[in-house]
Design goal:
The protein is an alpha/beta fold. It has two domains: 5-82 and 109-387, TIM Barrel (Alpha-Beta Barrel); 436-762, TIM Barrel, CATH 3.20.20. It has 28 helices and 21 strands. Strand 20 (664-667), helix 26 and strand 21 form a beta-alpha-beta unit. Helix 1 runs antiparallel to helix 2 (34-49), helix 8 (176-197) runs parallel beside helix 9 (215-231) and helix 27 packs across helix 28 (736-762).
């Protein structure tokens, strides 16, 4: 390496128009064959690699593409398939691959959880009793493909062994080194085969070192990478970290690898360089362009940062790249035709970020004059964006004047729950769902027609009312105790509110992958947030008018709206969180005034926003709990506040869950039910709770016995008077028949356990 190079860490999988998502779902629905799926996804992957997409990048990533999840890909490469899927060795077939991710009739899916502090979800590897072997060198396959079909000498991307095993389950923590030793020769074989094929560089992703791992893990990492250096000296390994600062940097920087990748956007990497320096025998892969947000880079500032970094390394030691994989941002803004031009000019999606990396590489190599026009253009776009920033002084004043009392309900939980029980008159172990109901092709196509002006507002509203009415009837026939209106009018739980609140803007094609084929379209927050008029009242009130049973009002909480939006940095994030909370407070008051007795304020993203650096946890958790309480503080004692959270390590945030002061919390937990229940065995929780009793991310229908077992397991540590029975998440992505069948099972299981509990209580 003789001069500064540019690199990319990973590219979005979904295609410019989500072709990847459609191909997957068509395959799962039986509309296309496996051969057709492979053909379509091959075309998407090759298109992503072509020079017009990553033009100017010296080290183009290969092997970052996936049909579902890159952690699952790592598992199947090593034959890590749970025993229940009847795997007999050899290359893992596609049906088994998707069965691990989604479940099948006779085998539940593997657990799914958040990828560090992002909204991406990965499939948790299960290592119980595994004897792994290299059954497929995916990195080699994709390296050869890029070389042979496109003439690209790519940089294979592989999930590193320390991170992969750290994210796995099914072994005792004290056995960590033994498990690593089992995989070490397999990783060595992967690297050797890549070296034999001519690969020069390989990116081993080790983001686990952006968490405070114990010193023992550092020692094991030193052992592992010494082994690689001795056994496969011909290949240049980049030890890639991202999302935060690197812990134990003083030892990480001395690993026997060719390069160290550091995040200079979200971490304190410049401080680490200043304190500890950088070795002269390695390259520094500097993550300069934000891989997790969509706002245009300030090229002037970024170039200054690169010039500072250059003080610590020679020119031949520097690689310029994004801070993380571009998996977390949309593909291209070229399709956006309706956005305000000032906002559009201020955006940077994956393709733009690649151009920013190339531009900055040119600037640091050749001098500022070489990119003067690009700097001028970016500066003008940012200045225009700042000039049109939606400032609301009234909202800012309210934020400044807030006190702790503003975020406290007038009545303590023990007193208000009595009032709620008297008012709601619910049975023991009440049943409900999380909120959304199946959005069928008819629902989605009707919404599209309405957005394109092909049907009138009145016709669309009538259609939504018809869906609500039909599902209120279905829920009554299923004998569910607390109903929902189904959210048929909503495209997404965050985007919908982004369309209604001031300070937001939304895109048409700004999709990013959340899990599997599930893509979300985060709204843009570029101004002060405020509430203008009711958002959810009309549909909630209509649904309640159709039934004597209680219908929940459904909102997305302030923490989740913040975490699942692309937030401009003009205002501090925690101030924006409070602004959103005050806006939601008005919506909650409007629901209450219109007779809605239960209001659910969902916070599925609370845990995922937790900083990787534990020193920052308290500030984040305190701010999150305050914002939630602020949104819900003004309701009367008889109004029951629910919330919902997604897959997480809840032991980390148990105190925060309690501090939310929600009357009822439901938690997505069916794939790791026992682990989560143990959290509540070890901690005292006095409020009401629903631990998801079946997995909605899988099409399989659970048995009554299976659901009863999940309920009874929870009741070992949670009083039946506290416990609610519900699916573990919203049902938006499921088909109607499987949804109805699964809910029948859930209600039947709840009734049987309820009867058993009532019999016990009488004795």
């Amino acid at each position: 390496m003789t001069t500064i190079k540019s690199s990319n860490l990973g590219y979005p999988r979904i295609g410019e128009n989500r072709e990847w998502k459609r191909a997957l779902e068509n395959f799962w629905n039986g509309n296309i064959s496996e051969q057709e799926l492979i053909h379509i996804t091959d075309e998407i992957r090759l298109h992503n690699l072509k020079k017009q997409k990553q033009q100017g990048i010296d080290l183009i990533p290969v092997g970052d593409f996936s049909l579902y999840d890159h952690v699952l890909d790592t598992s199947i490469s090593f034959g890590v398939v749970p025993e229940r899927f009847s795997y007999e060795g050899g290359k893992v077939d596609l049906d088994t691959y998707f069965a691990i991710a989604r479940g099948v009739d006779d085998a539940v899916a593997s657990e799914m959880t958040k990828w560090f502090n992002t909204n991406y979800h990965y499939i948790v590897p299960e290592l119980n009793g595994m004897k792994p072997s290299l059954v497929e060198n995916r990195a080699l396959t994709y390296y050869n493909e890029a070389k042979e079909k496109l003439g690209i000498d790519g940089k294979p991307v592989i999930l590193g062994p320390i991170t992969y095993i750290s994210l796995s389950k099914g072994y005792d923590g004290s056995d960590f080194e033994a498990v690593v030793d089992t995989f070490l020769p397999l990783y060595t074989q992967v690297l050797q085969e890549l070296a034999d094929a001519g690969a020069t560089w390989v990116q081993l992703d080790e983001p686990i070192f952006s968490t405070d791992v114990p010193e023992e893990i550092i020692r094991i990492a030193e052992k592992v990478y010494n082994h690689f250096a001795n056994q496969v000296p011909a290949i240049n390994i980049i030890f890639q970290t991202y999302f935060e600062k690197v812990f134990h940097y003083d030892r990480i920087k001395n690993l026997p690898v060719k390069g160290i990748g550091l995040d200079f956007v979200h971490g304190d990497s410049l401080k680490l360089l200043t304190e500890y320096g950088f070795p002269k025998d390695k390259v520094l892969a500097a993550g300069i362009v934000d891989g997790r947000n969509v706002w245009l880079a300030n090229l002037e500032d970024k170039l200054s940062l690169l010039e500072t970094i250059k003080r610590f390394v020679h020119e031949e030691q520097l690689i310029v790249q994004p801070s993380s994989s571009l998996l977390h941002v949309p593909v291209t803004k070229s399709l956006e035709k309706k956005l305000d031009q000032v906002i559009l000019d201020g955006l940077s999606f994956a393709d733009d970020k690649i151009h920013e990396v190339v531009t900055l590489t040119k600037g640091i190599k050749s001098g500022r004059h070489a990119i003067a026009k690009e700097i001028e253009s970016a500066t003008a776009a940012l200045n225009n964006l700042h000039a049109t920033y939606r400032s609301n002084q009234s909202v800012r004043n309210k934020i400044t004047d807030l006190t702790s009392e503003d975020a406290s309900r007038d009545t303590a939980f023990p007193d208000r729950i009595k009032t709620q029980q008297e008012s709601l008159k619910l049975p023991l172990l009440p049943t409900t769902t999380i909120g959304s109901l199946p959005q069928t092709p008819e629902v989605r196509s009707t919404r599209t027609k309405w957005r394109k002006g092909k049907i009138t507002d009145a016709a669309y509203e009538q259609f939504v009312k018809g869906q609500i009415q039909r599902w209120i009837t279905i829920q009554e026939e299923l004998d569910i105790d607390v109903l929902v209106h189904g959210e048929f009018e909503r495209n997404d739980m965050v985007e919908y509110f982004g369309e209604k609140l001031k300070g937001f803007s939304v895109t048409e094609y700004g999709w990013v992958q959340s899990y599997g084929s599930r893509c979300v379209k985060p709204p843009l927050i570029f101004g002060d947030v405020s509430w203008e008029q009711p958002i959810t009242v009309k549909e909630s009130v209509f649904a309640q008018s159709l039934t004597e049973r209680t219908v929940k009002g459904m909102l997305t909480g302030p923490v989740t709206i913040l975490n699942w939006s692309f937030v401009h940095d003009t205002t501090p994030r925690y101030d924006i969180m409070k602004q959103i909370a005050l806006a939601l407070q008005k919506e909650i008051e409007a629901l209450e005034e219109n007779g809605i007795k239960i209001i659910q304020v969902d916070e599925p993203a609370l845990r995922e926003g937790l900083p990787l650096n534990q020193e920052k946890w308290k500030k984040y958790l305190d701010a999150s709990a305050y914002a939630f309480r602020l949104a819900t503080a003004t309701v009367k004692a008889g109004t029951q506040i629910h919330t919902h959270m997604c897959y997480s390590n809840f032991e980390d945030i148990f105190d925060c869950i309690d501090a939310l002061d929600a009357d009822v919390i439901s938690i997505e937990t069916s794939r790791s039910h026992g682990e989560l229940v143990s959290t509540f065995e070890q901690n005292t929780y006095t409020k009401e709770i629903g631990l998801g009793v079946y997995d909605i991310h899988s099409p399989r229908i659970p048995s009554v016995e299976e659901v009863k077992a999940n309920i009874e397991r929870a009741l070992q540590s949670i009083s039946p008077t506290q416990f609610w029975v519900n699916p573990d998440c919203g049902l938006k992505t499921r088909k109607e028949p499987e949804t109805i069948d699964a809910l029948k099972v859930m209600v039947q299981a709840a009734k049987e356990v309820r009867q058993d509990q009532l019999t016990t209580l009488k004795q």
